[in-house]
Amino acid sequence: MVESVISPEILTYVVLPFMIFCARICDVSLGTIRVIFISKGVRYLAPIIGFFEVIIWLLAIGQVMNNLTNIVAYIAYGAGFASGTYIGMIIEEKISLGLTSVRIITKKDPGELMQYLRSHDYGVTSIDGEGATGKVKMVFTIIKRQDLPHIVGIIKQFHPNAFYSVDEVKSVGEGVFPENRSLSAGAFSWIDSLRFYRKGK
């Protein structure tokens, strides 16, 4: 019934490439998230995502192989791959899995900053150091990645000229972390519960 309404040319050069494009977006997005989950230690979800990823990929590549003379299908396949990679990274940023180490170096007394962080249940450690221009204070804290924008805002509020760096943390033994403050953070907090944490030596 559909074939009688839609011409074969539209099916071949519009509908089919669009379906391939959408399928590639789905499977590449899932693949990007799967790799990220593996790197973050969320190993229970990764195989499930991989199952759906490969099924969708087989459907997409099957349509391409059945239409080897359709150049538009090739373009849709490549465009879907590129778009899926980008969308997968956006999704990963929204989920914000894992832990992050923030290192703050300042010439000023960081006491007020440390007190503020500790009052909001962040674990903080400080040591004395010496930089190129003299004595400095180094403040370290390990936070949930979803809290990074909040922490950066606090640093700029108390020490706008302070140097800070951010590093990914693979695993921790134990730590002090605040409760989730927003619905968006809480929506994905259950994923962090699936991670494997290894105690440091």
Largest sheet: 4 strands, antiparallel
Overall tally of structural domains: 2
Order of helices and strands: HHHHEHEEHEH
| Radius of gyration from CA coordinates | 24 Å
- Separate helix tally: 7
Output the strand order for the largest sheet.
2-3-1-4
Salient structural properties:
single chain, 7 helices, alpha+beta, 2 domains, 201 residues, four-stranded antiparallel β-sheet, 56% helix, Alpha-Beta Plaits, disordered C terminus
Question: TL;DR?
Answer:
With 201 residues, the protein is α+β, with helices and mostly antiparallel strands. It has helices at residues 2-5, 8-40, 45-65, 71-95, 111-119, 148-158, 183-192, and strands at 99-106, 125-131, 134-144, 163-169.
Write the layout of secondary structure elements.
Blueprint: H1 2-5, H2 8-40, H3 45-65, H4 71-95, E1 99-106, H5 111-119, E2 125-131, E3 134-144, H6 148-158, E4 163-169, H7 183-192
Antiparallel strand pairs: 1-3, 1-4, 2-3
Helix pairs in contact: 2-3, 2-4
